[in-house]
Amino acid sequence: MTEVVAPVEEESPKSGPSSVGEPDQPEQPSGARGDMADASPLVYGNIGDYSLMLETVRAEGLSVGFVPTMGALHAGHASLVARAARECDVVAVSIFVNPTQFGDATDLASYPRPLDDDLELVAAFGGQVVLAPSVEEMYPGGPGARATTVRVARLGDRWEGAARPGHFDGMATVVTKLLAMTGRCRAYFGEKDFQQLAIVRQLVRDLSLPAEIVGCPTVRDEDGLALSSRNARLSDDQRRQALALSEALRAGATIWQSADPTPDAVVAAMDEVLRATTGVTVDYAALVRAGDLEPATAVGDVSAMRLLVAADVGGVRLIDNLDPADKAIMAEGRIGESR
Length: 339
Ligand code: AMP
Known about the structure:
- The structure is a single chain.
- The protein is built from twelve helices and nine strands.
- The chain is α/β, with parallel strands linked by helices.
- It has two domains: 215 residues, 3-Layer(aba) Sandwich (Rossmann fold); 99 residues, Pantoate--beta-alanine Ligase, Chain: A,domain 2.
- Helix 8 packs across helix 9 and helix 10 runs antiparallel to helix 11.
- The protein is globular.
- The two termini are 19 Å apart.
- It binds adenosine monophosphate.
- Adenosine monophosphate binds next to helix 3 and strand 5.
């Protein structure tokens, strides 16, 4: 299975947070972080108590790392929590399946919610605080009752934005809310959702939010499949078919690193791999500029680039992406998180 970061070690105990408000688990934090590393995290359902707790943490001179998630945590999420724990004094993780970013009610209803397992993973990788609010707590009166939506123009319109209308508005709105609740922090996001990361960076800049956004490399299974909570819905056959996404990225990167690449040849190589795989319906395969996600057109464009793919495998929508200049492809014939 996946090789990931080891759970956070206790070699550099830092001070832990003092208790504020009533966590929904009756455990009180104790002084040193070493005491807390393996303890259950403090779980808050109440936003006010969560915010106050982190304000107290900062008032004590400690830094806050924040990892927003929708739960069903796997080694990809764990890598974000572990990195936050290495770089920050106190790590908060939010677990909230945000209804406003799902277009499809069945998709929302069937999204896994294994809270106890998630709390164990958070604790094992160094997270101490969890925000797990109800839908009513996040959206009083229901998601439809709010009048404010955060919409990031242009960056949110293409690719996943075009395929899933309203998805990025829901994501941008909930991330803005979560960052407002968390306050000054370093916030960790996966490159796995490359367009999401670009949108979050933009909204933080545009709204002057007090968060430093940190992008983290995609964690993959050994065979190259990017970890995703959605992979659990794939049968064994479909999981094999899903490898077409990472294989397409590798094919595109190989062309990109060849002597005379053109954007069209790169895209054609990716398309060919996806279309040749039974059970895979390609949505898009693209070579884009990493900054604004506009399709690459010019040969010799010196901007940083990104390969993006999206496809349906057995009714499950999967996405993946890669830096086409990733040298591990040529050196090792594989794509991985070894950057
Ligand atoms: P999600 O729970 O799917 O909303 O994801 C929460 C965070 O985990 C997002 O920043 C994702 O980009 C990140 N993430 C999900 N899968 C991976 C992965 N395989 N590698 C790295 N980060 C990931």
